[in-house]
Amino acid sequence: MRPCSSPPFPPFADLAVFGFIALVVLATVGLVGALAYLDHRKTMALVETGQYAASERDGRDWVLAVGLVLVAIGLGGIAETLVAGAPVEGLTTAFVGLAALAYYAVKRRATAAPAADRDGGLDS
Description:
This protein is an all-alpha fold. The chain contains three helices and no strands.
């Protein structure tokens, strides 16, 4: 009979690392859950007291963020291919990001115009 080349149980250091990773994952999930619960309690308290104003969610913030990220990724891809001397790649990503930024600007201007009309066009 040949002796085993590896021990039957993993070394203690591997178990400690796995335990630490599991602890960090569980703590993160617990923190996210606690934050969601506290936000829910706050919202319910506002609803019960009548202070909760139902507001329309505006998706323009996400469009701005995604547009900026896509422009950055596209320009990074263009710079990388130019430095490497390869055919230019990343133009599509950059143009999609620019389109998102243009959409954000147009929507912001369209929602700002009615507000100016309500105020009589006077800047205070």
